[in-house]
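Quick look at the format.
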Amino acid sequence: MSRVSDTRQRTREAAANLVASGKHPHELTVDLIYAAIQQGSRTTINDELKLWKDERAKADALGADLPPAIADAMRSLWVAAVEQGEKVFSEHRQALESDLAALQQAHDELISERDAALTAADQLRHEVSGLHEQRAELQQQLASETEAKHDALGQVQALQQEVTTVRADMAQQLEAARQNHDRLTTEFQATVAARDAAFQVERDKANDRVEAAQARMLQETDAAREGLRQAEQQLAKLRQRSEEQQSSLTEMRLEIARHRRELADNETRLATLASMTVERDQLALELATARGQTAGLTAALQSAEARAVTAETQMAAGRKRKRSE
């Protein structure tokens, strides 16, 4: 678990402990929490304390109109659900942080390899430039030779023509490779864009489903609270009546049990929404993998350029050997 997530968890624990010791939620401050946990930034503590107070206020508001026993039970369920959600979220975040660290390490290794390849290519280009300068000097010396070396000059000219032809062929091959790379890059970018668009659509749909589910859950919760309130009113009337109406009282108790089951169903829907969030994170990982393939195509193009430089070096060595003969 990262330092920030540990600070957030300990902030919640310290707040709960202070309330249990007699403090009211609105009396809790960043200084009190920091004095209790002795770690983390005050900004992180302030953000998490605000979230905790909002959750506490929602739980208190949910049980404001209920009998004390039912309100305490609902608060206990709410606290257990929040703690379970935080635990699951912490585990998922820890797994994502581990994957991110591995991807960052792989990216750093690729960057190092690319820098080494670029350095080697610069050295080879420098050597090729030196060979070109030597060739120019030899051409000047050959121009000042006597007529006895005219045959050797003809051979050099033939070699130059061959070099020109080979260079033209290499230039065509390199241009073809670059065009192929551009085509593949364009196709890949189009594929990535299509996946991004599909991901955005799926995410929007998921968000719509989440919002609809939350709205439906709030409506059902309000209906349950209204049903409980009406049940309490009817129960008060029944207590004033004679004991002959015990059967009606039993029906009201059954109605209260049904509303409690509806509240439990709402908790199940919340768990379903959490699983939808996990599916969205998996789509993000697939997008990162596709971007890694683009880096592989770039490395292939650099390898082709290195082979071209090697071929040019070999041709220069061949010309030198022929001049020696």
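Next, a different chain entirely:
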Amino acid sequence: MHLRCLLVDDELMAQKILRQYIQLVDQLELVATCSNAFQAMEILKTDKIDLLFLDIQMPRLLGTSLIKTLQHPPKVIFVTAHEQYAVEAFELDAIDFLLKPVSLERFLKAVNKVIGVGLGLEDKLPGSGMEFICFRANRKTIKVFLDQIIYIESIKDYIKIYRDQEPPLLVKHSLAALEGMLSHHLFIRIHRSFIVSIKRITAFTSYDVELDTLEIPIGRRFAAQVKRLSLMKG
């Protein structure tokens, strides 16, 4: 697979970093770099673009607003420093939502969602296949292994991560942004305040899921996820 990409960001340093990352992936071809949404519009009118790396907070027109103006938008990976746009980004069917500063590992994970696993991206970054996410908490960086996570709870501007044989970890982070980072084969969002590990679910109904003795409600907005659980667990 070969993808023609357009990079749209008004920050020169962000442009430089993302260009370097894109150049590392053989399946990506950078067609152009723009500093605002209006420049991007002109290119999208004349060029075939498969994938947008799109900043959100830009002068005159937000990146999210640009997508709303397009009748047939390309695939989009939002890249921003502002967590508050995460929900809107995923409502626009974004492939991923990357928070600045973007690490190479996180960039490759997002790109893998577009071009598929097994195309050699892991070779670009030794160890990038490890199943963990790093968080800043208590003035240090903490490595959280995905297979140890039982569930994640949103508490205002924070998330609380419940793990095996570890105390809950409180991190200043958006649940919606974290949802975009997690594999949908391993985790499922069942409520505006909860994401759970699929393998930890021991039973479920149309109203809640059980993680051993713990019961977590299913939000009305996420009821369709129950059908997905039925297909995966049934």
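The longest strand covers residues 28-34.

See the schema section for token definitions.
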